[in-house]
């Protein structure tokens, strides 16, 4: 009987031990990301939205007859949505600096042209621009890149070509070229 009683106590002890649980508690917290639409366009050479000045010197008769072409200028778009890029000059005419007082009004349209030399934005180069020929800039917004893909390193490069001919006197003719990236 003693053995039976000890066996019963042992079984009861094991059953009690197996039912014993450690205490626990949990806490929950919500973490929300509040994203805004974001877009930036910068010149890779300067790392800012202001590119270095592009100078197109005309020093020979051949330059006047055939025009002068710049080196490639690379821009980067960063956007969390698909985007497009437009381009325009800041005015219809160049600003003149020099000693002549007459014959210095040079229109941007027909004189300053642009070509896209590289495009890794995932988008397409918009007409009238292309990767094989120059198209005239104007003072009105013109589509340059359409349907660019969102991302942090969407690159394209442009070159300028100026063909003023022999009509204008010596001096410096300046315009600002404005690139605008807009989310679609």
How would you describe this protein?
- The protein has 184 residues and is mostly beta strands.
- It has one domain.
- Helix content is 13%, strand content 35%.
- The protein contains 2 helices and 12 strands.
- The strands form 3 sheets. Strands 1, 2, 3, 6, 8 and 10 form a 6-stranded antiparallel β-sheet that branches.
- The model has no long low-confidence stretch (mean pLDDT 92).
Key attributes of the depicted protein:
2 helices, 184 residues, six-stranded antiparallel sheet, single chain, 12 strands, mainly beta
List the helices and strands and how they pair.
Blueprint: H1 2-19, E1 39-43, H2 61-66, E2 68-69, E3 73-79, E4 83-89, E5 95-97, E6 112-119, E7 124-125, E8 135-136, E9 142-148, E10 151-162, E11 172-174, E12 177-183
Antiparallel strand pairs: 1-3, 2-10, 3-10, 4-9, 4-12, 5-11, 6-8, 6-10, 7-9
């Amino acid at each position: 009987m003693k053995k039976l009683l000890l066996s019963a106590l042992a079984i009861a002890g094991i059953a009690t031990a197996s039912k014993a649980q450690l205490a626990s508690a949990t806490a929950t917290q919500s973490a929300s990301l509040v994203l805004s639409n974001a877009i930036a366009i910068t010149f890779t050479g300067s790392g800012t939205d202001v590119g270095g000045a592009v100078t197109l010197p005309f020093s020979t008769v051949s330059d006047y007859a055939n025009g002068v072409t710049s080196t490639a200028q690379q821009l980067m778009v960063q956007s969390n949505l698909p985007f497009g890029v437009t381009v325009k000059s800041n005015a219809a005419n160049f600003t003149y600096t020099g000693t002549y007082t007459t014959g210095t009004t040079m229109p941007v349209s027909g004189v300053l042209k642009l070509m896209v030399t590289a495009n890794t934005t995932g988008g397409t180069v918009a007409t009238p621009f292309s990767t094989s020929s120059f198209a005239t800039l104007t003072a009105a917004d013109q589509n340059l890149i359409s349907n660019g893909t969102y991302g942090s390193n969407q690159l394209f490069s442009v070159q300028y070509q100026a063909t003023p001919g022999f009509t204008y006197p010596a001096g410096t003719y300046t315009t600002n070229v404005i690139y605008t990236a807009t989310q679609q």
